[in-house]
Amino acid sequence: MTTPELLKVLDGTVDLHCHSGPSPFPRRINHVEASYDGARINMRAILVKSHHHNTVMDLLAMKGQLEDAPTPMYGGVALNSEVGGINPSAVAVAINMGGRCVWGPTVSAKQHIAAHTHDDGFPSATGNLYEKEESVFNAAGDVSEQTHTVTRLVADAGILLTGGHLDGESMKAFFRTASDNGVKRLLLHHPDYIVNAAENDIEEMIGYGAFVEHELAMYHPEVTAVGWPIEQLVDWINKIGPERTVINSDLGQEGNPLPVDGYLLIVEQLLDHGIKPADIRQMICRNTAYLLGLEETN
Hints:
Number of helices: 12
Shape: globular
């Protein structure tokens, strides 16, 4: 049951991982509907993620529909094959249009390709997208010049860079390069899903300033593709600490719960398992607002 106490904890949530549409993958809601969904818990902001295209373009095209929508919506670009991989031009376009995030390769990362087939529960497009592996390294095994340029662009813009679905070694090199080039807002997605980062890899990335993200979708009983117990999330929070942890929805897909329903259920479970309200707000409001650039500090 939704209680005033639960709504107080959720007030001002920032979701950095919303999969509303349009998208080549089937989506339950579009960006306008996601904004209204967020209003149910007075969300402060939503970052829209697509594996395939610059979502800033979506939001600008929907500007009229979003003008009176209650939750501010933000976009960015993921460095997959559809935008030319590690492509400074695609990043420059997204930034110049108001983008707040650059995601490292996800569906085009070697780690993702190795982990997924077309029948393993991960969404798939209706047709062949001709994706290929995208890497942060050049043929000689060094961090590519394109990767350096991308991280400098992100640093100059002061926006968020994520490791996408890169493997641990690639992501460490990506974040090390980003940190050296001045990126301040870094995010490691789901270390125990696809990425499978080792503890020492996570520690190194935190050392570069990264936050560690966990997703409501993976703990929601209606998302059968993963279905982890809430105790696993509690263990992660206790191990990493709320000051470096963020919790986002990773929802919006067809057949899955609405993002806000994910927050209502999983946050209530975290409270029931002894996670303090202030710590939850640190992870879903303060840290996420900082990463999106809404605050200068977390």
